[in-house]
Design goal:
With 432 residues, the chain is mainly alpha-helical. The chain is built from 20 helices and no strands. The protein is globular and about 60 Å long.
Length: 432
């Protein structure tokens, strides 16, 4: 066999599943690191890009979250464009393109002139870059989850898929931790003047590492005895599966962004917390989220996706309001508040751990990137991207500081209904 000959699809080095897991995960870390930074520094970004003479801080914050939400509405477009690329040409080329685009847009945000420097063009340029990030993020999930679950050894699909969510948690935690470290190390004036740029520029080495790993990756092998190209999938069947997938993860999307991304600005703007206190609370919530994801994914390989995800969704329905009241109580001890945010994050992790594998099991191979990516992107666009905008606007209009709990619990209640129909033994069936 010559040096340029291709290896047979069923011959793999023993380390291939691990390399696939690493290559699939690292792009998620880059993507969610940026979202963690943006959410944690929302008040700083609002002051630099969206606040103008005569406007209030609340108005600027709403505009910041509107830009945040817009990126989510570009995700379904990215899911279709890059999902079709991944389904037709392979997982690797799609994943290489999306991580390159995400890295480029994130680093450019760190170099962007502020409103004080170039006027009204600054928020428009920032919004354009957020849209590019939304496109790349829309293709990231479908390709990465397809790659990880298709490479997963028998009986470990839930654990392998959970690594996608785990690196989301690491990205959010790294982003929030980086923002918190800068807020602690720099005077407020320096943070608002130039310090906020540093976390965005740090995406460059992360993205370069992700590109290197993904360009060296092999395509996952087809399932045994699979027909060439797979059986056709009717558009109506695909649409039905996408809608059902949205219902099953909408609670994960809404509660995740409420507790893990919107929390810093909520604590500052509504409860009067300092930036350092808000970022510390967010870091703790993300730590609880990260700690529960991999155990939840592994547990779902043993007892099924349904009981684990239902447990997380029901936990949010029952506990969202009491946990928020702990944060609102002036007499609550720091330890009690820390426990509240840790528990809130852990409940989201119970849904996020089995969630990727659950979605992968809903779609056949030939449309898996597109189908699960579109379900995730639409759920994110409606229930995640709008979380900050809806919560901030409703609190400003009603004065009810419990709006975040109602939002998260309501979405999780609807998810419970969709999860009840999840097949009990789907985790034991081979991927088609």
């Amino acid at each position: 066999m010559g040096p340029l000959a291709l290896r047979p699809a069923d011959v793999r080095r023993p380390s291939t599943p691990r390399r696939a897991l690493l290559a699939g995960s690292v792009g998620n870390l880059v993507e969610w690191y940026e979202f963690g930074v943006y959410g944690s520094l929302a008040t700083v970004i609002a002051a630099n890009f969206f606040r103008y003479e005569g406007s209030s801080g609340a108005e600027a914050l709403v505009a910041t979250y509107a830009s945040f939400a817009l990126a989510f509405f570009f995700r379904p477009v990215g899911a279709v464009v890059f999902g079709r690329l991944g389904d037709r040409l392979g997982r690797r080329p799609a994943l290489v393109v999306v991580v390159g685009l995400m890295t480029l847009a994130t680093v450019t945000i760190g170099l962007l002139p502020t409103r004080a420097a170039i006027g009204a063009a600054a928020p428009w340029l920032l919004t354009l870059l957020r849209a590019l990030q939304g496109l790349s993020a829309g293709g990231e999930f479908g390709g990465a989850v397809s790659l990880m679950t298709e490479y997963a050894p028998v009986g470990r699909r839930g654990l392998y898929g959970a690594w996608q969510s785990f690196t989301v948690a690491l990205g959010l935690l790294t982003g929030a931790g980086t923002a918190a470290a800068l807020a602690s190390a720099l005077p407020a004036e320096a943070l608002y003047a130039w310090g906020w740029r540093v976390p965005f520029l740090l995406a460059l080495p992360l993205g370069a590492a992700a590109l290197w790993l993904r360009t060296a990756l092999d395509e996952p092998p087809p399932p045994p005895a699979a027909p060439a190209g797979g059986a056709p999938v009717a558009p109506r069947e695909l649409a039905r599966a996408v809608v059902l997938g949205i219902g099953r993860i909408m609670g994960w999307s809404a509660a995740g962004y409420t507790f893990l991304v919107v929390l810093p600005s909520y604590l500052q703007a509504t409860l009067g917390a300092s930036l350092r206190e808000a970022l510390l609370a967010t870091a703790l919530a993300n730590a609880g989220f990260a700690a529960s994801i991999l155990p939840a994914g592994a547990l779902s390989d043993r007892i099924g996706r349904r009981p684990v995800m239902l447990g997380g969704a029901l936990g949010v329905v029952v506990l969202a309001l009491p946990l928020l009241h702990v944060l609102q109580s002036p007499g609550a001890s720091p330890w009690l508040r820390a426990g509240a945010v840790l528990l809130a994050g852990a409940l989201v992790g119970l849904m996020a751990g089995p969630g990727p594998a659950m979605l992968a099991e809903m779609f056949p191979r030939r449309v898996r990137c597109t189908g699960l990516g579109l379900a995730y992107a639409l759920a994110g666009g409606v229930f995640s991207g709008c979380a900050g905008l809806v919560i901030t606007a409703l609190i400003a209009r009603t004065g009810d500081t419990s709006v975040p709990a109602y939002y998260a619990a309501g979405a999780c209640a609807l998810s419970c209904c969709a999860l009840l129909g999840l097949p009990g033994r789907g985790h034991r069936e081979p991927l088609g």
